[in-house]
Structures are given as structure tokens and as C-alpha cells.
Design a protein that fits this description.
The protein is 75% helix and 0% strand. The chain is an all-alpha fold. The protein has one domain. α1 runs antiparallel to α6 (128-136), α5 packs antiparallel against α6 (128-136) and α5 (96-124) packs antiparallel against α7 (139-145). The longest helix has 29 residues, at 96-124. The chain is elongated. One of its GO terms (molecular function) is enzyme inhibitor activity. Keywords: Disulfide bond, Signal.
Length: 148
Amino acid sequence: MKPSTARLLAAAALAAVLALASGVADATVVTTCKAAAGSDGRVDYDFCVAELGKHHDSPSADTWGLAKVAALTGVVDADNAVYDIKELLAKDGADARTQAALARCQELYDSMGFAFAEAQDDINNRDYAAGKEKASSYSVQIAVVCTA
């Protein structure tokens, strides 16, 4: 996985985490992503809008609905990253160090996908604090480990 892709996926995960706690009145994809990008430099505003905005529920979602969309987006992005890493590991030519790093990132993204799925359950139950905690558990690790 290219470092830029890993950074963008970590940023999308971070945006989803921040969406859970944004507290933005009348949250929309644009206001949530603007708040997320303004509060954390790792969040790419355009990527955030693109990722959260492509879900069919986003245009009409309230804060709770947008938090659910964000968690689902985190699951999808994490699963896509795992798939991309598997493709990279299947190619010949990577040295042992690169393969080990990719394998570690694959584990982190896989765990992050499960964490976002658990966050989705918490959000469905309107337990935002628990959802935020679960969603944020891997974002920082991925941003550090998988973009180095």
C-alpha cells in the first residue's frame, strides 16, 4: 500500500472518530468534515467529504445517522486496505522488512475494521462515548505504523 493511501485511510478513520464526538449542531457531511479537518491536521477534508458523502444515507442524516455512516465507512475503508495489502503481499519482489511491515498493517487494518463494526453497534444504541473509544483505538497506530 502506498503511504499516501494509508494516510488517507487513517484520515478517514480519524474523521469518523471525530464525527462521533463533533457536537456540530445540524451535522452534515461538510460541517463534520470541516470540523474534523480543523481540529486534526491528519484529516484530509476532500477525502473525508468524498468518503462520508458517498453513502446513500448521508444527505439526510442527522448527527446520529452521520455517526453511523462514519462507522460503516470506517469498516469499508479498513476492509479495502486489508484487501490492497493482501494484493501487495502476493506480489514478488518485496524484501522481508517490507513484507513484515505490510503484514503488521494488515493486522491493524483488520482489527480496525472489527473495532468500527463494534462502534457501529454502540452508536446504534446511542452510546457515543463507547463508539468513539472503539473507533479511535486503531487510528493513531495505523497513522504511525503504516505511513512510516
